[in-house]
Amino acid sequence: MTAGLWEHWVLPGIWITIQLTIYSAALAAVVAFGIGMARTHRLRTVRFLAGFYTEVFRGTSSLVLMFWIFFVLPQLAGWALVPMWAAVLALGLSYGAYGAEIVRGALNAVTPAQREAGVALSFTPWQRMRLILLPQAVPEMIPPFSNLLIELLKGTALVSLLGIGDVSFAAYLVRLATTESAQIYSITLVIYFVIAFVLTRGMRALERKAKAGIGQRPEPGPGLVRRLGVRRTSKEVGPMGGGVSS
Predict the structure, then answer these.
(1) For residues 45 and 13, what is the distance between their CA atoms, to the nearest angstrom?
(2) Mean pLDDT of the 165-178 span
(3) Which residues of 158-197 are buried (b: 16+ CB within 10 A; e: fewer)?
(4) What domains can be seen in the chain, in order of their start residue?
């Protein structure tokens, strides 16, 4: 692949993929927290409407929704979205529905005693949510949110069907220009992996910070667990294989 193809197609495609991921993730986060908190509301009507939204958008194909927003919505509303924002809207609404279930589950996992303590302190429902429930639930949301963010990154490849010049569309154009499928698609796989790796490391750092904010330690990685296990075994077993006497 020549430097010109890399400069004019692949690099702009990477930037567009990053933009799509950031904008869609921001919209999905707003939807997830809004709908997820509504799923735990004391009013049954609010819970029903939030649940209805979740079921509709979880059961709808992101690709079909993207086509509907781009091709059908202009006929109904009389105005059209550019492909970029149609894709952001479709991805944000779809993945936000999945995120809403993460938020709902994390909020319901907070012990009832914490809610009762807020009631005893005469906190309003919003104060209980903001000061008691969310600070404890958010650290538990981050690992599944990290997985969902990676799925969203990979889902941005769908926008190439609208002609948006993301990494997937750039790879398609390069393949047409060079007929070198193996090289360009191998590079594309590496690009997605690198972006996903950076996002994963960032979410892990955010998880550690969130847990430190409420006095929790993040779960140790496999390497640390293995080292601790070896160290503990060496202390408990004597040089001849017997236990260490106290």
Answers:
(1) 44
(2) 89
(3) bbbebebbbbbbbbbbbbeeeeeeeebeebbeebbeebbe
(4) 3-234 (1.10.3720.10)
